[in-house]
Design goal:
The protein is built from 21 helices and 37 strands. With about 950 residues, the protein is of the alpha+beta class. The strands form seven sheets. Strands 18-30-29-19-28-20-23-27-24-26-25-21-22 form a 13-stranded mixed β-sheet.
Length: about 950
């Protein structure tokens, strides 16, 4: 066999592949020259960046300034800089081409200008937004280099940062800025991540100035060090001062509208004292400056404006409700003056409502925030509704029952109110001073106390079970639209609270439906949507798994089974940057967790542990789509995977954690969950009740109670003859005492409303002449109700006891009734007893009435009480028509039962068109207790009263 033919073929193929490979390698060549002299510059670093895949190629110019760099075919940006080993810093700024050069192009002339470097130390932060997620340093220069220009953006900008170049792919130190040798201006941009839309935005621009307060001048090769911490302190103090100035203007405008904000002004002064204290202190550290600035800014920018806004909203709603209370007071006051003179009563009601509403419009601050015609509409509507409800509606709803001897509740109240008003009018001086004392109480309540809902730190005990019983707190940020907690925040807390141990939880925020990373093992690949980063200690608490290594990973059982992975295996974790670069980590499998267990794990705030996958529906990642790695691995992945700090775990003693919890909730507005002794306490910002001035109110309250009690007691004993007359007319002690209590109620309602309105006016005067009032103004809609209710309570407490006791002494009919009942209980019944029924039945209702009574009687078939043998008979007797309805009533008393025969007689006289009703009761067995007959008749009377109220057709 001829073996030369295959050999020739193999050699030909090899030669052909080498030819193809040589053809695929191209170069970009040129020369680096001094921009000013035109002489060649050696040792200039040239970086070629592929515009499509962002692959980098690098070379250095020789002693003649020439360079030639092999590249793959494509289009390239050209970057260059000069760094001499004999100088401490860079010797030229970073230069970039304006145009894109194709591979294979030669004779490119790259200018080199003298320059130096500025190294920035310290962290950037803003008192409002905290530590930035990204930052950029921008150089302001205007040197014309033709086809090239100096790179202006350094630092850590996000991908595709609109204001600068792709500096992230050049791998410069993030705190080093290359500048030309002339006066340059430097600016820092603080950028924050908007998780809800997955984008970035620039929040703040900060000018970085030199020692002279202006631009920087750097010599060639110089390495200038600048500390950012003093600049950040000055910047944030200025931010806090601006916030204080704006809030002071807000307080001034609200005071001009009628509000009294002494508490808010005192809090603002406290914020100013915090800033002035650190401004004059030169020996404070950066951390000692940071917390007072945070507190001052929080007071001025959040706490006080929120309180004022809440007060304004409540005052505006109260302004529309104020005419309602004015109408109620006006109708009470007018009815008190003109009880029976209806025309004068209505005139006084209208005049009083309009005049008081106009007066309060100028004294109640909430009216400044509503349109005047809305206030007028509310007034007119309140007047019309109140007038209709109190003067028209009762007459329409009144129903005359044909029940002899029965008085309606409406008539009783009307009579009692009328008697109370007439008694007050007869004693004008005494009534005047009683109303005055109650009005003083209501005014004191309005001016000396406040029960206000304000914003502040609240605590709440939660029913959350967690795995560890150690004392620790967590600052979660679980939801996908939450602001992440920067790592610098943890570093600051760790530095400030040195006695506490800090750990973080990191997780990916949603980029649905894109996969975040890939894992590979033995040729198998799986896409991962969620990555969670935990410290060794937190992983041990959550999963009871110890580990001494840092490069570990925890996966679900389902993922382990599908990939063939076991504990101890090493897997590769790949993450791709937006530019195309790939990050790879080799991680050892620490633990395989069942899917059920991974789904059931919760964070200390009670939310599920797995990250959010879909930002629209809130769907969480499945266990097989999630991996848990160490925080060290997360730090490596954070360049390419959008990870956020979603929680801070702090371990320490309970006292330290309580202080940290309060500070984080008040100044940073985090939701802080403090775990201790198997309980969870939540610290958060919310509305809470603030009580002021309650103690001073007790003195006028006791004075008013004593005054009203003395007046009531004196009035009762002065009117003994009147009480006896009322008793002889048939009023029992309850009705008589009700008359006296009605007098107190009338005075307390009039005095309560009057005191509240006068209190509003007095408060305005107190505000005008005093700056030390520490109680808040009554701007909520419910304060008039509370003032009247307080007056009613005080008046009732003062008058009820004395009125009832005195009435019983004057008319002890209840005692006589009790004695009479006890005596009657000893009598026996042997014959028929006749009872008069206070009911009359029209002829047209005869069948309806009898049918109703028979139906009611037939419905009673119980064990303790029953009706049987019902019969009806109609006959004529002595020109009278009679109907007799008889039945047998049975009632059980303890171990005995008694039966009573009851006959209901309906009698119609010739000259009448209705029936009169009487009843007879007789025992079946003579000698039954009289109580049995009384109960039988009471049972029948209840049926007749029910007919009168609801049985008529």
């Amino acid at each position: 066999m001829n073996v030369r033919v295959p050999l020739i073929i193999v050699l030909a193929l090899a030669f052909n592949s080498l030819t193809i490979e040589s053809r695929s390698i191209q170069t970009i060549s040129g020369r680096t020259i001094d921009f000013y002299s035109g002489k060649p510059v050696s040792n200039v670093t040239i970086i070629l960046l592929n515009s499509e895949n962002l692959r980098k190629y690098q070379g250095v110019s020789d002693r003649n300034g020439d360079f030639e760099i092999p590249v793959e075919p494509g289009d390239y940006y050209i970057y260059s800089y000069y760094d001499s080993p004999s100088t401490p810093g860079f010797d030229s700024p970073l230069i970039r081409s304006k145009t894109i050069y194709k591979a294979g192009l030669g004779n490119i002339t790259i200018p080199v200008i003298p320059g130096g470097s500025i190294v920035l130390e310290g962290v950037l932060w803003d008192v409002e937004a905290g530590f930035p997620d990204y930052y950029a340093f921008t150089v302001n220069t205007s040197i014309d280099l033709g086809e090239f220009y100096t790179v202006k953006t350094f630092g850590n900008p996000p991908y595709k940062y609109k204001r600068g170049d792709e500096i992230r792919y050049i791998e410069f130190d993030r705190k080093t800025v290359l500048v030309p040798c002339r006066n340059v201006e430097l600016r820092a941009d603080l950028l924050y991540l908007n998780i809800s839309v997955g984008s970035f935005f620039t929040s703040f621009e900060i000018e970085i100035r030199g020692e002279s307060g202006g631009s920087f001048s750097v010599n060639q090769g110089e390495r200038l060090m600048i500390n950012l911490e003093p600049l950040m302190i000055s910047w944030n103090i200025k931010r806090a001062e601006d916030s204080i100035s704006k809030t002071r203007s807000l307080i001034s405008s609200m005071e001009n509208a009628g509000f009294y904000l002494a508490v808010e002004k005192e809090r603002l002064n406290e914020a100013e004292r915090l800033l002035s204290k650190i401004a004059v202190s030169t020996n404070l550290s950066f951390l000692q400056h940071k917390e007072p600035i945070y507190e001052a800014y929080h007071i001025a920018s959040w706490e006080i404006p929120r309180r004022i806004e809440l007060m304004r909203i409540k005052a505006r709603s109260s302004a529309l409700a104020l005419p309602v209370y004015v109408s109620l007071f006006s109708v009470l006051f007018s009815y008190f003056i003109y009880e029976e003179e209806r025309k004068k009563l209505v005139q006084a009601y209208i005049l009083s409502s309009i005049s008081m509403s106009i007066l309060l419009y100028f004294f109640f601050p909430g009216t400044r925030f509503i349109v005047p015609h809305l206030y007028i509409i509310s007034l007119l509507l309140s007047m019309a509704v109140t007038y209709y409800l109190l003067f028209r509606l009762p007459n329409r709803l009144a129903r005359e029952f044909k029940v002899e001897g029965l008085v309606s509740f409406k008539d009783l109240i009307t009579v009692f109110s009328s008697l109370a008003i007439r008694n007050l009018k007869r004693r004008k001086i005494r009534a005047f001073f009683t109303i005055l004392s109650i009005a003083i109480l209501a005014a004191a309540f309005t001016d000396m106390t406040s029960f206000s809902v304000v914003y502040g730190v609240k605590t709440e005990n939660l029913n959350i079970q967690y795995l560890d019983d150690m004392a620790y707190l967590v600052v979660p940020s679980q939801t996908f639209d939450s602001t992440p907690i920067p790592l610098e925040e943890t570093n600051w807390l760790r530095g400030y609270y040195k006695t506490a141990e800090f750990h973080v939880k990191m997780e990916t925020f949603p980029t649905y439906p894109a996969e975040q990373v890939e894992i590979k093992y033995n040729g198998r690949t799986a896409g991962i949507y969620g990555v969670i980063g935990l410290s060794n200690k937190i992983a041990e608490i959550l999963f009871s798994s110890k580990s001494e290594i840092e490069d570990w990973v925890i996966i679900s059982k389902k993922l382990s089974k599908s990939m063939g992975i076991e504990v101890g295996d090493t897997i590769q974790v790949y993450a791709r940057e937006p530019g195309g670069a790939i990050w790879a980590l080799n991680l050892t499998v620490r633990l395989v967790v069942s899917d059920t267990e991974l789904k059931s794990v919760v964070d200390p705030d009670g939310t599920l542990f797995l990250p959010i996958k879909d930002p629209n529906s809130g769907e969480r990642c499945k266990p097989e789509e999630t991996i848990i790695v160490s925080t060290q691995s997360c730090t490596a992945l954070i360049e390419s995977v959008p990870l956020k700090t979603s929680g801070i775990y702090v371990f320490s003693n309970y006292e330290t954690l309580s202080k940290i919890s309060y500070k984080l909730a008040s100044m940073r507005m985090y939701n802080v969950y403090l775990h201790h002794d198997e309980t969870v306490k939540l610290y958060y910002i919310g509305e809470k009740l603030e009580i002021r001035g309650l103690g001073p109110l007790l003195i006028p309250m006791l004075i008013v109670i004593s005054n009203v009690a003395a007046v009531t007691l004196n009035t009762v004993y002065e009117r003994m003859n009147e009480a006896r007359l009322l008793s002889n007319l048939g009023l029992n002690p309850r009705y008589i005492s009700t008359i006296f209590i009605m007098e107190s109620i009338m005075t307390s309602m009039i005095g309560g409303f009057l005191g509240y309105f006068v209190g509003l006016i007095i408060y305005r005067g107190m505000v005008a002449f005093s700056s030390t009032i520490l109680v808040r103004e009554k701007v909520e809609w419910y304060w008039p109700i509370i003032a009247v209710f307080l007056s009613l309570v005080v008046s009732t407490i003062a008058s009820a006891k004395f009125a009832v006791t005195a009435s019983l002494k004057i008319v002890p009919s209840r005692m006589r009734k009790k004695v009479k009942t006890d005596v009657r209980a000893k009598f026996k019944a042997y014959g028929v007893r006749t009872y008069s029924m206070p009911v009359r039945v029209p002829l047209v209702d005869e069948e309806f009435f009898l049918g109703f009574v028979e139906s009611e009687l037939s419905s009673y078939r119980g064990y303790t009480q029953s009706v049987s043998e019902i019969e009806r008979k109609k006959y004529a007797e002595d020109n009278k028509t009679k109907i007799t309805l008889s039945y047998k009533y049975k009632r059980i008393y303890g171990a005995r039962h008694h039966e009573v025969v009851v006959k209901l007689h309906l009698t119609k006289y010739p000259d009448r068109d209705y029936y009169l009703i009487t009843a007879e009761a007789s025992p079946v067995i003579p000698g039954a207790p009289e109580r049995a007959l009384d109960d039988a008749i009471s049972f029948l009377r209840d049926i007749l009263m029910s007919w009168c109220k609801r049985g008529k057709p």
